[in-house]
UniProtKB/TrEMBL annotation:
<dbReference type="InterPro" id="IPR002347">
    <property type="entry name" value="SDR_fam"/>
</dbReference>
<dbReference type="Pfam" id="PF13561">
    <property type="entry name" value="adh_short_C2"/>
</dbReference>
<protein>
    <submittedName>
        <fullName>SDR family NAD(P)-dependent oxidoreductase</fullName>
        <ecNumber>1.1.1.-</ecNumber>
    </submittedName>
</protein>
<keyword id="KW-0560">Oxidoreductase</keyword>
<dbReference type="InterPro" id="IPR036291">
    <property type="entry name" value="NAD(P)-bd_dom_sf"/>
</dbReference>
<comment type="similarity">
    <text>Belongs to the short-chain dehydrogenases/reductases (SDR) family.</text>
</comment>
<dbReference type="GO" id="GO:0016491">
    <property type="term" value="F:oxidoreductase activity"/>
</dbReference>
Amino acid sequence: MLLEGRNAIIYGAAGGIGSAVARGFAREGATVHLVGRTLKKLDALADEIRVAGGKAETAEFDALDEAAIDEHAASVASSAGSVDISMNVITHNDVQGTPLVEMSLADFESPVRTAVQTNFLTARAAARHMIGQGSGVILMFGGDGDPLPGYHLGGLQVAFSAMEALRRGLACELGPHGIRVVTLRTGGIPETVPASAGLDEAIRDMVEATMLKRTASLEDVARVAAFAASDHARSMTATALNISCGTMVD
């Protein structure tokens, strides 16, 4: 197993991406510490993981709450013995579909503020324990910071760019302590798109924008995340893993 004996904290674990990654990490031997704002959903996921033979713990709090984040990370380090992996996949409260020149400041800055704050706080909390261990992996999840013609993504693209700047800074400072920082990028995952009018057309556009004429699935994300967090990727840091099926060209 790729992650045998590792402790992974996943923020936003009850969502589509978070739950897929949690299942993938547990399948590879990690104990997953599931964090979110709805305990009922977290407990249901934890039960599912345990039934499948995995190990899971849950904690209910907001991943923007500095004190709760620090306290939980310290609790995991104390009770489990280590914090080996930290991954933040909470939603960024983004508003899409409105041209920038028609957007309010509040709607524009919401994803930027959320993304930077939550990723900084959770990465910092994990890193403080990883430094003492001399090892650890911090995974971020985002897209490309470049704008996409024809789409009105508001502040989300700015948020992605800010996250990448944060990732570069963390990787530079934490590398000497044996800590890796990596971003996973997709061009969109149809399984996470809420059902709505025009959904089929939106998914067709998403697929058409790829080179492989298919999009990444939640299972693809889970497998790549497990690889990135494992020793198989021990030489990878300060970079992004492009799993966009060719939507994004590096």
